[in-house]
Write a structure and sequence with these properties.
258 residues, five-stranded antiparallel beta sheet, three-stranded antiparallel beta sheet, 8 strands, disordered N terminus
């Protein structure tokens, strides 16, 4: 699996700075904030994930990991669940796995949702559904601008193009990763800056799927979406397949995903 993290301007904090601070911040407080931010990033990109895996990835003691996780759960930003039997390694009680809640993801950047929703509703009143669909298409076009369609429909070429797409979506704030699954590869968008708006306007999700198809030249399937309440937007791309024409697309944006 290749991980492509959220772009931030201050490593580990997810905050942009505009100049020197006028008041000192205790070092312990800064470190606490950086550690919490790093844990949130892992929950975002790799969740559901165990506390042990978090500690291993960040070099933290179990007590420290549990303290941060408890604080996130108390704040309603994370939740815990038991691992499924097939995920359990060894004997004993299944380990807890942690992931962000919708509120936790909401803290990562849903600014201007109300304004965006109002603007798209107004656009729909003026130009109808076709205008909204065209807006969504152009929006995705700016994200993948500069990416050329796959040249040859071979597994290595498709996989390389999937990585390129994931990089572009990460640059746009989607925290995209890829992972091999059987004879295919999946694009996992662990964050969606427009998730709240996409709940009302599925055209935003549909346009992303169409862009994946156009660039990869093959049928892709949306398995889950954040807008539908899932923990990530997951799109499956087969690596062993023949190219399929763009016409005759079906709407499988994942809004009724499992």
């Amino acid at each position: 699996m290749k991980t492509v993290g959220l772009r931030t301007d201050v490593e580990g904090t997810g905050r942009k700075t505009t100049g020197a601070r006028t008041s000192a911040v205790p070092v312990a407080t800064v470190h606490e904030g950086q550690t919490r931010a790093a844990i949130v990033q892992l929950l975002l990109e790799d969740g559901p994930i165990t506390a042990t895996a978090i500690g291993t990835a960040l070099g933290l003691a179990p007590a420290g990991v549990r303290r941060h996780l408890d604080a996130l759960i108390d704040a309603g930003q994370a939740r815990a669940s038991r691992s499924a039997p097939w995920q359990q390694k060894g004997r004993g009680r299944p380990a807890k796995q942690y992931q962000l809640t919708a509120a936790g993801r909401g803290n990562l950047g849903h600014a201007y949702d109300d304004l965006a929703g109002a603007a798209i509703r107004q656009l729909g009143e003026i130009g109808g559904d076709a205008a909204i669909a065209e807006f969504a298409r152009k929006r995705v076009g700016t994200i993948v601008d500069g990416i050329e369609p796959v040249a040859e429909h071979t597994a290595p070429q498709i996989e390389a193009k999937v990585e390129e797409i994931a990089e572009a979506f990460t640059d746009a704030g989607f925290a995209a990763t890829t992972r091999q699954v059987g004879t295919g590869v999946q694009i996992c968008q662990h964050h969606c800056p427009v998730a709240h708006v996409a709940e009302e306007f599925p055209q935003l999700c549909d346009a992303e799927l169409d862009a994946f198809r156009d660039l990869l030249g093959t049928h892709v399937q949306r398995l889950a979406t954040i807008a539908n309440g899932d923990c990530a937007c997951t799109t499956h791309v087969p690596l062993i397949t023949a190219a399929q024409p763009a016409a005759g697309r079906t709407n499988d944006s994942g809004r009724s995903a499992e």
